[in-house]
Amino acid sequence: MSAKQAIDLKKTAIDWLGITPFLIFAVMFLIAPTLYLVTGAFVNPAGEFTFDNVAGLFTDKILASYWISIKISLASSIGGAFIGFFLAWAVVLGGLPSWIRSSLLTFSGVASNFAGVPLAFAFLATLGRTGLVTMLLRDWFGINLYASGFNLLSFVGLTLTYMYFQIPLMVLIITPALDGLKKEWREAAEILGATNTQYWTKVALPLLFPSILGTTLLLFANAFGAIATAYSLTGSTFNIVPIQLYAQIRGDVLHNPNLGYALALGMIVITGISNLIYIWLRMRAERWQK
């Protein structure tokens, strides 16, 4: 072996050593648990192979759980993408002071990870029946949210709660795509006589569409797998898939771990498809912007 080959081999070994902690982490907390769930979905409590657990996913109650989870995920992802896009547009292309951009991105980095019990408590303290905003609207403006039909512990309330972390996540992901719009493209469009509307409809939005759609799918997957916020806010009364899964694996009444594994398998398939489409659209968007 030559000296150059020995140096290259040593460098390769050091490179693999650097990535080893990540590989160990991925195997222990992602790959191995996923394989365990997939395997458990196709066996019964006695350890025998069966399709009964997967067939159980097509009962009315579980299909209803998937449907309500899909609706909440769609509503929060579309709403979060819409509002988040215009927030990002305002700070990137709207001519606002630079400190507003840095402040918004810093807040978005924190808010996109703010979920679970703290987020549920924050919304109960703000928009609950005796929440601060609820009381202010009633006492100062004569608006009674709950008398008009609003309920935080409902589809609309849970969707609003999810949008708290969906909007900042959209801001963080779509901002680089907006930064990637070159000034030369707008200048070329203006030289050719295009109006601002024509520039956005014919040039900018077609270029941004893969990024927007891909990020919306990522937000969908993000909401579909959320459990801590929903469980802390609504308890077991709101029948979304993660809560149904928790009830099957840990519950005293609906205790069927293998059916819970099948529920998890269904969630993996749905979120996996969303993430794969997001990755494909992101690669497509990056190629277009180059």
Question: How do you describe this structure in short?
Answer:
Its main location: membrane. By secondary structure, this protein is mostly helical. Helix content is 77%, strand content 0%.
Layout of helices and strands:
Blueprint: H1 3-40, H2 52-55, H3 60-93, H4 98-111, H5 117-127, H6 132-141, H7 155-179, H8 183-191, H9 196-224, H10 228-234, H11 241-250, H12 257-289
Helix pairs in contact: 1-12, 3-7, 3-9, 4-7, 5-10, 7-9, 8-9, 9-12, 11-12
What does this structure look like?
The structure is a single chain. The chain is mainly α and 290 residues long. It has two domains: 1-40; 53-289, MetI-like (MetI-like fold). Helix content is 77%, strand content 0%. The chain has twelve helices and no strands. Helix 3 (60-93) crosses helix 9. The protein starts with a helix and ends with a helix. 29% of the residues are buried. The model has no long low-confidence stretch (mean pLDDT 86).
Name some characteristics of this structure:
290 residues, MetI-like fold
Q: What is the β-strand count?
A: 0
Which second-level CATH architecture of the largest domain applies? Orthogonal Bundle
- For this structure, the CATH topology of the largest domain is MetI-like fold
Q: Whole-number average pLDDT?
A: 86
* Domain tally: 2
- Considering the protein shown, what is the CATH homologous superfamily of the largest domain? MetI-like
The CATH class of the largest domain is: Mainly Alpha
Rg from C-alpha positions? Answer: 24 Å
Order of helices and strands: HHHHHHHHHHHH
What share of residues is helical? over 70%
Strand content: under 5%
Instruction: Give the count of helical stretches.
Output: 12
Report how far the terminal alpha carbons are from each other.
Answer: 42 Å
Broad structural category:
mainly alpha
Shape: globular
The biggest beta sheet is recorded as:
none
- Uncertain segments: none
